[in-house]
Amino acid sequence: MDFTRVYTQVQSLKNNLNQVLLGKSEIIDVALTALLSKGDLLIEDVPGVGKTTLAHGLARSINCDFLRIQFTSDLLPSDVVGVTIFNQGRQDFQFRKGPIFANFILADEINRATPKTQSALLEAMSERQVSVDGVTHLLPEPFMLIATQNPVDFSGTFPLPESQLDRFALSVKIGYPDAEFEKRIIISAGEPEALKSLTPVVDATDILKMQEAASSVTVDDDLVNYILAIARATRVHKDIRLGVSPRGAKTLYRSAQAHAVVNGREYATPDDIKALAVNVFSHRIVSALGTHGEELEENKAILCDILERAVVPV
Amino acid sequence: MRLSNYMLIITYFMAGLGLYAVTLADNIEPLFVIFMGSGIVFSLVMRLWKNRIIPRGLWNFIALFIVIVFIADFFLGGRDLTASGARFLTILLTAKLFDISSNRDYVIIYGTVFFQILAAAASTVSLLFLPVLLLFIMGTIFAMITVTIQKEFESGSDSGGEPPRGLLDAPFIFYAVVLSSITITITFLIFMILPRMEAGFFQQRNQEAIKIAGFSETVDPGAYGPVKKDPTVIMRVDFPGNPTRPHGPLYFRGTTLSSYDGRAWHRGETKEKLVKKTAEDFILPVRPRGRVIEERILLEPLDTNVLFTMPRALRIQGKFTNLWTDASGTVYLPSPPFSRIEYMVWSSPAAKLSAMNGDLSRFTDISAVDETFKARIKDLALEITAGGSGIVEKSALIKNYLKNNYTYTLDPESDKDRLPMEDFLFYSKEGYCEHFATAFALLARSIGIPARIVTGFLEGEWNKSGSYFIVRQSDAHSWAEVYAPPPAGWVRVDATPAEGLSPLQRGTEFSNYMDYLHLKWNRYVVNFTSTDQKKLAFTFQESGGNIVSAFKKGLQGSGAYTFAVSQFLLVLLLLAFIALLVIKTRSRRAREYLAKTPGFYLDMLRVLKKRGLEKESAETATEFARRVSRPGVGELTEIYERVRFGSGECATGDYRRIKSILHGLKKMSRRQG
Fold this sequence. Notes:
The complex is a heterodimer of chains A (314) and B (673).
Chain A: H1 3-20, H2 25-36, E1 41-44, H3 51-61, E2 62-63, E3 66-70, H4 77-81, E4 82-87, E5 92-97, E6 104-108, H5 115-127, E7 129-132, E8 135-138, E9 144-149, H6 162-165, E10 170-172, H7 179-187, H8 191-197, E11 202-203, H9 204-215, H10 221-236, E12 240-242, H11 246-262, H12 270-281, E13 286-287, H13 295-309
Chain B: H1 3-24, H2 30-49, H3 59-76, H4 81-96, H5 103-121, H6 129-155, H7 170-193, E1 233-238, E2 251-257, E3 259-260, E4 265-266, E5 272-274, E6 276-277, E7 281-283, E8 293-299, E9 306-307, E10 313-318, E11 324-326, E12 331-332, E13 341-347, H8 371-384, H9 391-405, E14 407-408, H10 420-428, E15 430-431, H11 433-446, E16 451-458, E17 461-463, E18 468-472, E19 476-484, E20 489-493, H12 509-526, H13 530-556, H14 560-594, H15 599-610, H16 621-628, H17 633-645, H18 652-672
Parallel strand pairs in B: 14-15
Antiparallel strand pairs in B: 1-8, 1-18, 2-16, 3-4, 5-11, 6-7, 7-10, 8-13, 9-12, 10-13, 11-12, 16-19, 17-18, 19-20
Helix pairs in contact in B: 1-2, 1-4, 1-5, 1-6, 2-4, 3-4, 4-5, 5-6, 6-7, 8-11, 9-11, 13-14, 15-18, 16-17
């Protein structure tokens, strides 16, 4: 495994993204972690902080297909996965691939779609395939779904069901930039210009190699115990109604591996786990406090509380 | 297994060992042992049920009570310090087992066991003591390791006083045992192969010569007597060919004294000649008769150059440049020995000294004696020997007369106005060997029997532990020899009554055992010389050669026995090889385990902790490094993470960095703390 090559590529990806998303290197790390761990990313934030820019930047840096689906309440599953049509000329049914058959999908405002459409994504997310009319179609590799949702504007939205949330590897909140960076954003030529100037630094095969490198990262047994301790703590915490599933714990494991590669290491450290635990778990747990609209913040606070207690292996 | 369980097991093992050691000692009643044993078992049962058994504060009163019991036991129970001490320690230990609450208590218990074993050592000659001692050494090493681990983990807050699971499993015990055995073995080996100096600075006069008053080259009756009470060991004699006690009494002959000046005896022989020397031995001009006794003598440094032997030494073997002898058969060293010497003597007790040629008159000379006293002696001699004829018969009569009519005492009544011999013969009639020997010689000479005085030592005390005689200063003796016409020659006549012949100073069984250990220690440890090394090497070489030749023979089928032996040795080698393999794989596994948290990182944590910078348990190493923000901490943390979670190996350059960073941190903490 050529780690050196992987690190240089990761580094150039980071550089690219830093040009378009100013002052958010941690968010970029999380996005790359999702990419390298073959996970899907959920970006939750108010409009205008760079959700789409991040997705776009990622797609433009990689020489891959990129498609954006704007989710609306009248979007149908077939609009996403594709539709079988009757070809009159050839006299048979033909599958016309939907927008999901691309390497990178930006599912913008995913919670605006109806549950039926949302669930159309389930199979794609967990199995990297879609089944239409009894025929299974494999999605291209690499495949990554980046979904965004607005946590403030709830009118006319359908909250994502737990089962679907659980399939997102990581969730991230971009947040407002620092004043300094915001000023730079304001005076800059504008998003499209920056994005347009980005050139692809890696291609699909490179990404596959990076993913392979990530899956070969060493994770000490004690770190697995650490993951386990955090995951199990969410199940007994008094403020949590629904704890983390084993899938969630496994995702933290794989994310930690990817995070190590993103940080130029062949081995995971407790920091990888601690840094990602909130991103991996915050959308998976259900708080018992249940303040409407504040769930995400509550979940993060609870997780931080757990992390402050979990004994870090030395 | 949990550390506390280890502590418990090792502690009760040590307690059991201590109790067993005490049973080896004399004067300990079985009932007491049973009672204390049940106490120990009871404390174990209680401990498993409840952590601290005796309430805090009560212990001091109990200890005080035990001390009072000990004092009472000592004064009422025969004032035997060893026995009461052993009982005291056992009670103390048993009571302490009910009061373990800190690491100090464990150490106190091990210390008590140590003293129990000392007490046992002071009163046992049982060979079982050796395994007990070895087990104690092993147990102590093990216990100390456990206590140290316990302390370490108690001081580190992260682990909550418990070492990680698996640390104390079989490999731990295995290593503790293997390490202690290796240590003992290596110590032994180093001792064996350490180069020895044949002669050098340190061997110059390392011992003060014993001022030998018990044996002297002049005998002056009345001048001493107190020497008979001196227990200083002069020599030790064993019989290599025959470890059983020979039939006594044995006389170790020193020198002969033949001229009497009216008060004291002096050496008469002046003509000394060199003893014939062969490659290894010194051959004396004595013709053997009857059985030959082989004796090995270890002589302490004395201020005389007389070499003691059993009578009629035929052959002497020792590290002497040369020896001298005279007509009386006395053997002399060129100079008094400055350190302990060891020599072998082959002597024939029945052999005769070569017949005197020439004038015997100097053996009948009592001219120095005052005339009236001489007349009284002669009258007495004639009176005694009236019924006898011939030298042998007359001598026997004089001897019996002295034995029967005179009293043996070390503190004779003496009258300053009279000569000591006059006092002995005609007034007080009490004295010790010098008096008896002199009186005999004077009486014999007065009637013309040639007689002389011989000084030397009696056999002393038989040491059962080591099968040898301990000859003390107090065993110094003098007797007489008379010259009977050929073929008899010089014959020993000891006129001292029987009570003067038994050793006055006796060691206890224990002191004899200690003397034996001391002897062996001196022989094989202190005086383990290059010669011994050579001998050992030669033995190995020889046995190695034997094995090879035996193996060859075995292959040729010419000896079933040697073949079996060589096969056995082969199997032994194979087993050793397998054991080595097992140890190697085990050690690798253990190393993998123990290497989990690199020591240097723990060191850094300790150094920083001293400065009040303590890593929170939920804090990652990087977070901690960022918080601490001291030079080098970040770098060290990076190395630590690479070693701990990555490859598990440290690059060579890392070690130097680690050392200098730790050094820098320590210096800083000292300066600022």
